Amino acid sequence: MGSPLDDVIDEVSRALEDRDFQEGLMRSGLNNQKKVAEILSRNPEILEAAKRVAEVKRESVGRLGELVEEAVESLRRVGANPYYAETAEDAREIVGKIVGRGSIVVMSKSMAAEEIGLREYLESLGSEVWETDLGQLLVMLEGVKPMHNVAPAVHMTRERAARIIRDKLGIEVDPSDVEGMVAAVRQFLREKFFKARVGITGANSLSAETGTIVLVENEGNIRLVSSLPPVHVALVPIDKIVPTVWDAVNVALVQAAFAGFWMPVYISLITGPSATGDIEQIKVLGAHGPREVHVVLLDNGRMKAASHPF
Fold first, then answer.
1. Per residue in 9-37, pLDDT tens?
2. Which segments constitute the LUD domain (predicted)?
3. In CATH, what number is assigned to the domain containing residue 116?
4. Owning domain of residue 135
5. In a domain, 13, yes or no
6. Which of 16, 26, 82, 161 is most buried per CB count within 10 Å?
7. Is residue 233 domain-resident?
8. Concatenated DSSP letters of 88-106
9. pLDDT at 200 over 60
């Protein structure tokens, strides 16, 4: 067995020899660079917003323990169930108990879930787990790790994506028809959304003041993951916590701009479970969205890192 460094060298060597991989990176990289440059050129105010976000994040890291406590109190106040996971193992076990065994689970793209190996853990408990972000689904079906935190399939050409859809989902698609490939995956996933008992998301940010989860996206899958299943689990790294809901929204908007999406198609603000009070002003949980919202605050070394000066 080789050392971890040997494994890295082997992976790099394979990537350098994979022409399809290189072509996919080149196409995606050039497209993204152009988009971000155009966005910043047309909207110079984003750079000022980014500076303010950087200040908020620095201040938040400086008082992370205080913000975690405030977030826990706020989440409880709005009817969500907060948990503090000190380690990756703690987080997996917490989510595993919520999900149970043999459930159908849909997930939005989450680097925190990738960090702790959540999908694989839930599968080991007998659950059927589906990634719903198109790029993350392709990566899952191919059995590899995501290549980028925003665009997990950034290395894939359309030809490679078509092969994966055909071989893993049994759906014939035309590699030249990207819209057709997206439509095929959309139709396949619709059944999973409606059958799922649990939807798992990450978070772009979390307001300590209000307990509001902010999620930004273009595909629309996060809205379905967080609203169709009766149980919503949000896995939120504690460094995503900022003081106010305005801070949380600004963080998400700046992230979207520098990812090449402006304006983002969807911004979701989730503050506790779905509810209605339309009959005699009596609050009933689980109107059209989830009856339960569980928020797992993931430490996994972040609090220790925050205690060290920049």
1. 776 677 667 666 666 566 655 566 788 89
2. 68-298
3. 3.40.50.10420
4. 18-306
5. no
6. 161
7. yes
8. HHHHHHHHHHHH-SS-EEE
9. yes
